[in-house]
Automatic annotation (TrEMBL):
This is SGNH hydrolase-type esterase domain-containing protein. It holds the Pfam family Lipase_GDSL. CDD domains: fatty_acyltransferase_like. Residues 1-18 form the signal peptide. The keyword Hydrolase applies. InterPro entries: GDSL (IPR001087), GDSL_Est/Lipase (IPR051058), SGNH_hydro_sf (IPR036514). SUPFAM superfamilies: SGNH hydrolase. Coiled coil: none annotated. Transmembrane segments: none annotated. Keywords: Hydrolase, Signal. GO terms for molecular function: hydrolase activity, acting on ester bonds.
């Protein structure tokens, strides 16, 4: 079993949540021999596919969940200004070096193949939060869709596919915590229920034979541009910490149940908070707001026309809720170095 989590999780408020204790000596995860990454999540992770819903997915939507192997394997990653929620490649594209080039990329042609089933706007489950749109695919449905269509297609029709050389990556909870921030609930109990449901779906992936898992915890969502301008951020740092503690506890429990699994929890919160605290280390000069013209077709060279004093790659925030492609690139580099340790 590999469980790379800390013995306690500290949050910005100074409160510490115990749990998440490694239950045996960590085994080495071999990133260098990994051939494919299968991703689930929301807009922080989704990539545009030629057969996906525009601005939302690599393949299909809630109205078009079914596909056959030929459809999946012929699909291509699109890379242009609108093909992710970041204005350029995101962390899974940088991590795998798959789909980072402008134009179209077949995952099959990448040294580390990227099969991305994340859906922009996804929450964990409609059991707790309504869909952002009637076509949104929740995390639970992403994994059910994968079980029914994606996994059989890859296992039966993708040359050289090997579950032992495949890493499952999940980054989810960003919409959940934003959408529920004003609920009148006991948040620690609520986040435990959310992560209970998340890991029920992870058990589905385990039942399909996948043994390597990478979980990403929540970024410092209390420090988005809108929240930095408020005296009472929503969500606040305590809520973010509670969710991250629940995720860590569930990751530890999952690893305990499945000792042959390689379970890794990357502390994205700490890395991103460091970038916000000391941005100059990363070539960033603006961490408090975003360029109003971020979505304009000429923004890369004409940023001053939109009242922006510097180019997008020198901003931390791409828009009100997403980080720039540059931040994703730095984060992916941190993840890769961590996986190689």
């Amino acid at each position: 079993m590999l469980l790379l989590v800390t013995c306690a999780l500290a949050i910005t408020s100074g409160t510490t949540f115990a749990g998440a204790i490694p239950l045996s000596k960590p085994a080495k995860f071999d990133w260098s021999s990994t051939k494919a990454l299968i991703a689930f999540g929301d807009s922080y992770t989704y990539v545009q596919g030629t057969l996906g819903r525009q601005n939302y997915s690599f393949i299909g939507d809630q109205f078009n969940l079914a596909y056959d192997a030929e459809t999946l394997l012929s699909n291509q990653i699109v890379q242009n200004q609108t093909a992710t929620a970041e204005g350029g490649p995101n962390w899974v594209e940088y991590l795998t070096n798959c789909g980072v080039d402008q134009g179209l990329t077949s995952p099959q042609h990448c040294k580390k193949q990227l099969w991305d089933f994340a859906f922009a706007g996804a929450d964990i489950s409609t059991e707790y939060l309504p869909l952002h749109h009637n076509f949104t695919v929740s995390l639970v449905d992403q994994i059910n869709q994968f079980k029914q269509y994606g996994h059989p297609a890859l296992q039966q029709s993708l040359p050289g596919f090997n579950q032992e050389k495949t890493l499952i990556a999940l980054w989810i909870g960003i919409n959940d915590i934003n959408d529920s921030a004003k609920y009148a609930v006991d948040f620690r109990t609520f986040y435990k229920r959310l992560t209970d449901t998340l890991f029920e779906s992870v058990e589905t992936l385990y039942s399909l034979g996948y043994r390597s898992y990478l979980f990403m915890n929540l970024p410092p969502l209390d420090r988005t541009p809108g929240n930095q301008a408020k005296s009472n951020p929503s969500p606040n740092a305590t809520q973010v910490g509670w969710y991250n503690a629940a995720l860590a506890d569930h990751a530890a429990a999952f690893a305990e149940r499945h000792r042959e699994a390689r379970v890794m929890l990357f502390d994205a919160h700490a890395r991103l908070a460091d970038m916000l605290d000391e941005p100059w280390k990363y070539g960033i000069v603006n961490t408090t707001d975003f360029c109003a013209g971020y979505d304009q077709p000429d923004i890369a060279v004409e940023y001053e026309k939109y009242g922006c004093p510097t180019s997008l790659e020198r901003y931390f925030w791409f828009n009100s809720g997403h980080m720039t492609s540059h931040v994703h690139e730095v984060l992916a580099g941190e993840v890769e170095r961590w996986l190689q340790k």
